Each structure stands twice: as structure tokens, then as C-alpha cells.
What we know:
Two copies of one chain form a homodimer.
Chain A: E1 2-4, H1 19-41, H2 52-55, H3 58-65, E2 73-77, H4 84-92, E3 98-102, H5 107-116, E4 122-128, H6 134-149, H7 154-157, E5 158-162, H8 167-175, E6 179-181, H9 195-203, H10 208-220, H11 230-243, E7 248-253, H12 259-273, E8 281-284, H13 295-300, E9 305-312, H14 336-353, E10 358-363, H15 368-389, H16 400-409, H17 416-422, E11 428-429
Parallel strand pairs in A: 2-3, 2-4, 4-5, 5-6, 7-8, 7-9, 9-10
Antiparallel strand pairs in A: 1-10
Amino acid sequence: MRVDLGNALDSVASPGVSRDALSRLDERVADAHERIETGRADDEHGYAALNLPETTDTDEIRSAVEPFADAETVLTVGIGGSALGAATLANGLDSDVDAYFLDNVDPEHVSALLDRLSLSDTAVNVVSRSGTTAETLANFLVVRDAMESANVDWTDRTFVTTGEEGNLRNLADRHDLPALDVPDGVPGRFSMLSTVGLACAAIQGHDIDAVLDGAHAEADRLAGSLFESPAYAYGAATYALDERGAGINAMMPYAESLETFAEWFAQLWAESLGKDGLGQTPVRALGATDQHSQLQLYRAGPSDKMVTFVRPTERADRSIPETDLPGLEYLGGGSLGSLLSAEFEATEASLAASGQPNVRLEIDRVDEYGLGELCYCLEAACVLAGELYSVETFVQPAVEWGKRAARGLLGGGNFEEADEVAEKSTLTVE
Amino acid sequence: MRVDLGNALDSVASPGVSRDALSRLDERVADAHERIETGRADDEHGYAALNLPETTDTDEIRSAVEPFADAETVLTVGIGGSALGAATLANGLDSDVDAYFLDNVDPEHVSALLDRLSLSDTAVNVVSRSGTTAETLANFLVVRDAMESANVDWTDRTFVTTGEEGNLRNLADRHDLPALDVPDGVPGRFSMLSTVGLACAAIQGHDIDAVLDGAHAEADRLAGSLFESPAYAYGAATYALDERGAGINAMMPYAESLETFAEWFAQLWAESLGKDGLGQTPVRALGATDQHSQLQLYRAGPSDKMVTFVRPTERADRSIPETDLPGLEYLGGGSLGSLLSAEFEATEASLAASGQPNVRLEIDRVDEYGLGELCYCLEAACVLAGELYSVETFVQPAVEWGKRAARGLLGGGNFEEADEVAEKSTLTVE
């Protein structure tokens, strides 16, 4: 894949970064690369995720899901990193097997989905490393109950993806369910290339080896210079732009199939780098649609943001019929793909013309290989950025307060955080 | 509906706003309200949108869509404000009639959707005020062609929503298609409560009078003080928080059915206020899911953001079966709704505990009335904020550059913007 930083340079944009500044930053990139390589060599927590293209055993995944070869639908019960990697692949790639995700505990949504599914034709994958995630376990209990009500033997239709110990592991042991291991040292948001992200894709019939091949190609390009590694080019440029005022990073793919990828990126970026008062705020956008929604702000609002464009350079096209509608003759006889390409190039240029920094990421196609490249590239970019910010990339301590408060509110123990909920300050207008 | 600013006060949050500062700001709110009322009284461009609860003729809408009473699916072909209002209602409310939207020109997505639809059972609504929007017209040409290929008489299955003149109006006249008028003085992003947003809902069998009733109730609450009007309370508070450093506004509903509402809000806020170097950047989030994705950043990242929570206080619930899974007994016997409520309150409190400003918006239910209230409230809040920022709320001049460039690239005329596309600065790493 290709990363083009041309429109992030200070000759184009403000904030922008000079070539000299990038060269100076490259010394820190070299050091960070060394740190990352050491972490990878020692399979340290987090860094181990960058080894997944080599360490993931796709045969094991295929064999675990073999009992579900007849499934017409795969339902992943998981939240955050336990769902977004699989969802990125599922929504990025076509399949005759539909994929659904229970990644929220909205009762109306859960009921509507369960009413729609033919549970006897569904494979259910319950994903939680700890086996204690409240939302996931609650949804699992509801799904299991729905299967029993539908006279479906849930033990025939369920497998788990979890750590070596915990509730889900015990459950799998007790009921002899197929179980996949969440690998050690891989935080949820970095787990797409493991059992966590690939089991759903395997059931959908996707070539999960090709996903890893694409990732492997990017891993091979990691090097001690941002000018030699697409991942580090992106990670270093975003860090430099943030330092210069671009605290917002709008991820704007020009492909509907990459809409979930933008959500996956938002988690990766926010949860890894958002700490110690640092970190860009990721914004999810979609080309060309959001030209008619967000572009006014991106061009004419505060100069506090950068836009990351992603596009495949090849895609199946569809022609636009000729037309005699006055003023629209120029569209007729063209194609939707050409129109989308023109919109992309025009939008990119329009941001440059108004001095708003932007970066272009290109893959050949939105296919297994391309998604593997793209996601690995951004994971490595994120790890590099974490080194440059000097934050603890692989933890997320700030979410614990709310988990304890929620657990206390639900009667799951005594937590002082729950008491603070009752003390809410109010100023109500109605 | 209720707006609670308690967690936006400087006694809780930083940035935060003091009660005194709100009182001082209230003098400007009174002036702005007067300006808004004058604009409404004169049906001025933009301000006229706040009169839609009174001026929209729902009988006209129902009668225009009557030929499509048998439709199993309604397909809206439109982009930006021509789609998002209708999509907010369609995705917010249950219906036996499915709604789809062609709001992008991705050829793979368009082909996949058209392959899936039974076009003879579909009502197609082509929406463009000018009748020249490239994406919409290109998609219409493709849809019409697909209907002809499927031996469906497109003139039987199509209606248009457009201005008094232009291509779509001419097309409707020539082929005797049902046509709805886009009302004068109503920019796309403010058009949900007009023909533009309500035709799709009418075909889906929703009570569009109730949508307007909810909006009307909020219109009646507009008053010369932010302490008396939920809409102005929200508009003034966001403005004050932005002035104090909260340049990002994360819209985080706790209801899956409000996911598209957050996109609608993002357009309203970005395109209306994003000008002259001003305007908050809207971020779309979803509770409880994004607690596992964005919350780490919101709590521990830069203090440059506020979170807007939206929740219905009533919803259909679903119980969680009892369980003997160790450590999860506290979940069993509860309900998904209680869990979601606890997550909401815990997350809100967790942001307050770390000093991050947040605002709570509450409606009774996600139904026609509630959506009418909510969306009108935010439209009026946006108009108020525009007055406080002193920006031209109802225009979007910054998107024109890219439109001309794209048109030039596609051979639709000579535009110097298109020449700049070829001069792109590059710094490629691959």
C-alpha cells in the first residue's frame, strides 16, 4: 500500500510539517523502531500484536469453526475490540453468509435482531478475553435463552473465543463447546489478525490466509525510517500534525465497504493514544457522502484537524446511462467509479487549496489482502505514535471507573464510584 | 424534552461554564431570540425552517405517496440533507416497509443494493432541490436503467421531491410523476420536518403528524431565556463550552435507533456552524458500545471536548435470564434496559468525575413525537448558536470549490479548480 504525505507538508497546509522537521523526527522513529522490534522479539504485551501475521494459526481457526460450515448466519457476541475487527472484515467483504454483531445492550435492538434470525442456522461466537464483560455475557444469556425457546440446542450452535481461564472457558469445558484462544499479549483493539477477528471471516468463507499475507507484507516494510515504511510514515505524520495543532483526525474512506473500518480505526486511535491529556480525536467520515455534511467544516472551520483519505485504486464499476437531461450530459456515459474518483480528487485538492492538511492511503482493492495491509499498517502506525507520544499504548485505565460504577449500580458489589452517580449536579431546562 | 446542563458547570468540569457566565450570556440569548423570531415572522431564508411544524402540509405528503401504498420498500435517492432527515426517522422507527438510501456513488454498493431489491415493489424518491446534484442524478439514471432492465415501468414507481424549477421538475412534468415541493427558505440540513424528510416516513406508515406535534411542542418552548427553553439551553451551553475550549462535541445517544440521528446532528452542526474558522467538530458515538472504544480518550485525552448524551427514559425492555455463572449472578434476573441505564449513568458520572463537560438530553421515547421534539430542539439550538457565533448559519460556501473541481474533472465544463488537482504535492512512501 501507499501513503502520500504531500498534502501534510507546510508548503501546502497549516498546520503542516516541513520536510526538515520530518527528517529530524526520523531520528526518533529509528529509536522507536528499535524499541518496537525489541518488544516484538520478546513478545511483550501489545507489541506481540505486530507478530500476529506470523503467529496466528489459520488451520486452528478453520478447524474450530468447521462444525458451523452449514451456517447461513454468524452472530458475534462481543463489544469493542471483540467485535470491531471481525465487523471490519465482514462489512468489507462480500459473502453469502450474513454476519451480525451484538455489540450493545439496547433491548429493542437485541429483540429485533433475535426475532429476525433463524437461530437454528446461526453460528454464535461469544468473544470476551476475561469472560466477565457485562454487556457480552448479558447478551449471551439472552441469546442462549432465545435458542432454548426456539428449541435449538445452543451447545450445537455456539463457540467461544476467550482467554485460558474464566467463565467462558469454564462454560466451554462444561458443555464441550469449540473454543478458540485469545492470544496472550494482544489487546482487543489489536486483535483483528488473531482468532478474535478471523473466526467470523472463516465462517463467511473468506480467505483468512490472504488477510495475514497482506498484513505480513506491511510487517516486512517496517524499517528504521519513516521514509521507508508506510506505517511509520503515517504514524509519524499524524503525531507531527497533532503537535502542530491538528488534534482531530477525520478518517474518510472513499468506499462504503470501509465504513466499519473507520470505526475500527477510531477505537484503535482513541483507546491507544487518548491518555495523559494527549491523543488525536478520531472522527469517522465517508466519501463522497460526507462532502455534503462535514466538508464545509473541514475546509472553513477551525484549523485543528487533518483528514485521512483511504481509497482502493481498483473496484468493480458501474456505468451511468446516457442522458438528455439538460446540464447532466457530462454524467451520462461515464461511470459511478469515475464520478467517485473525481469527487475524491476534487475533495482532496479542495482541502489542500484551503490549507487543511490531509494524507492519502491507497490500497489496490478492498479484498482480504488489502484489508490485511491497511489494518496492519494502521496498527503499526499507532504503536509508533504511542512511542513518539511516550504513552502506554496498550492499556485503557480510564474506562475502569465507569465499569465499577455500573457494577455497583447493578448490585454487583460495593463500589464507591456508584455512590457518586447519585450526587450528580443538575441544571435542568424543560 | 429535558436538557440538563449540570455537568457542564465549572463546579464540575473544566472547561466548564459558571452560572454567572450563563446569566450574562442570557442577555445575548434574548437578543438572538428576537432576531430569530423576526426571521421566522418574515419567513427569511433558513429561519423559515423553524416554522415547518406549522407550515408543512401532511395531507399533501400523504396524497403524493398514495400511489405507493403497496410498496414493500422505499428507496430514497439523495445525499446529505436530502437523505439524512428521512434516514433518521427510518432508522429511528420500526416499520414493515424497509427503507434504503442511495446517498453515495460507490459502484459496488449501488450494484449490491440494486441486486437485492425487488424493484417492482419499491417506491423510488429522487430528492434534490436544484435537480442538478451530480451524485443524486447519476444514481437516479442508474436506478432508472435497472428498472427498465427488470421490466419495471419506472414512471409507475418513481416520484420526485425538488424545487419549483430544474431537471427533476421537468422530468416529473414530462412523465407525469408525483412531485413534492421542497419548501422555500429551508436548507437541506434543516428539512427533516418538510416534504424532504417526511415522504419516506409516510410510505413507511409512520405518524408524520406526531413528528410535527413533537416539533411544535419544542417550538412553543422557544423563549427569550436559555433557562426557559431546552433548545436555547443546549445551543448556549455548547457555544459557551466551545469558547472555553471544548471544540469537539461528541454526540452519544444511548439507543441503537438513534445512531443515524447522530449522523444527522453531525451534518446540522458541522455545515451550519463550521465557518469563519469557528464551529465545534461533531463526533458520532453510540452508547454503550463506544464506552469500549472512545471513552478512554474522552476521560483521559485532551480537555478539548464535551459529550452530549441522549437517552429515552422509556423503552421496551428484555429480561436477562438467571445464571449460575460465577461472578455474573448480579446480571441474571435483571434486564438489558437496566444494564444500559446503569452504563449510561456510570459513564456520565465517570466523565464528571474526571472533569469532562457533558450535557444530558432526554426524551420520553424514541417514537414519532420524541424524534420531532429532539430534532427540532437541536435545529433551534443550532440557529441560536449561529447567532451567538455571528456566522451565516444557512449557507455552505466552502463546498463549492470541490464541486467545480469535480465537474471540471468529469468534462462538465472549464473550471480552474480542476487544474489544481493535477498539481498535487506528493511525498509517497510505499
